[in-house]
Amino acid sequence: MPTASACAGAAESDSRAAAVARTPLDVWIARKIGQASGPLEPRALAAWQTERLRQTVSRAKQCSAFYREALHDVRSDAFQSPRDVALLPLTTAARLRSSGSRMLCVGAHEVERIVTLATSGTEGDPKRVFFTAEDLELTVDFFRHGMATFTGAGDRVLVLMPGARSGSVGDLLQSGLAREDASAAVHGPVSDIDEALAVLERTQPSVVVGIPTQVLALARRGAARGRPIRSVHSVLLSADHVPRAVVRAVEALWRCRVFNHYGSTEMGFGGGVECAARDGYHLRAADLLFEIVSPETELPVADGEAGEIVFTTLTRAGMPLLRYRTGDMSRFLPGRCACGSLLPRLAPVGTRPAAAVFLRGGGRLQLADLDEAVLGRPDVIDFAPLLSGDGRRDELHILARPVGEGARVDTAALERALLRVPAVAAAAAGGVLGVRVAVAADDEGWPASTGMLKRTFEDTRPAEEAHA
Predict the structure, then answer these.
(1) pTM of the full predicted structure?
(2) Is the CATH code 3.30.160.20 the one for domain 353-466?
(3) pLDDT at position 163, please?
(4) What are the phi and psi torsion angles at 384 (to 5°)?
């Protein structure tokens, strides 16, 4: 495991690559694609992805009723490089909801796990994602090697993610870690801060996996009680946008290093993870082919440009997904990582476009901007944003959760921090936005971040004003 001193500043240039251990995914993927030795070669990876893309399209047309229709005019031999994936039509979340079962390429008896995704605010059928035992094994293998970046034999891992059911993310993590002789205890998402904090203090884990604001709450609540956790050397944050303010706070309070994971259920739970350089997600490129497309034109953008993340499964047996639109925004990072790997990397994923609101006067406010302003305050562990309006003026309401029972929040300082957010400052200066901060009562529970649903705004304005 790399030391903090060995890793400091490692992402600054290729010449310093030797200061950071190469991501474990490099050797793992090289082995998966049949490369005999040495670091992963991009040309070999591209050849693997192209061949797997051909096989996936051919099998989907042969075995899936949905793809038999959707890909009727597509020939698998048309794919001469990974970029040719753009020849395929995009798949949307709406299409997955309406036609998911028709995408299956196996019989019902071969399905090991079905995950139902009920998305907040979405009408109609939920998304259902199907996995075979073979599909789940691929995820276990990814978790094993991805976690090896900061987890080794003898580590005790506390997983604050769902894990009660076989094939859930916590269960798969536990299986992967066991193969590296690390033990994992699955607690589940934090619904009671004090209960989870008691588990932390009792078990003294060396690694914690959890949801960003929930881990922040544990770190700040423990510190406020004079009982900071000192056993943790690494934290992996996942399942939601990771604010920089959260990373800084958790690292300072627990004296650990925080890593970021990107994935979704549709991807098979895992998509990419940071290496010791912490300069973007190294992607699970033997199993998933990623693209960045323009949300407006739906065409691929130039390397390095920002756009929507789209992925295609290359090894999924049960339910292949071809060019699935994630709704997440990012860009490919150019060049070699400071760890020395040439694996494709994504820049940190921000909040989704859905986690943004239009303000009166034309401004656009992202939840990520509020995250840095609000969660950067040491007296807040979570918050819920709400936007209301009376037809002439909008009001931004922030319900802030204090660190603990009886703790206070400096609401004036928090208002000043909010008014430094560019979109808020411009709208307030124009007289079309007011800012109000309230403090959640002790019995109000979590205002925003319970369970696994991604955080978003509550917008009570009429629809025509909310989209003006």
Answers:
(1) 0.91
(2) no
(3) 92
(4) -125, 125
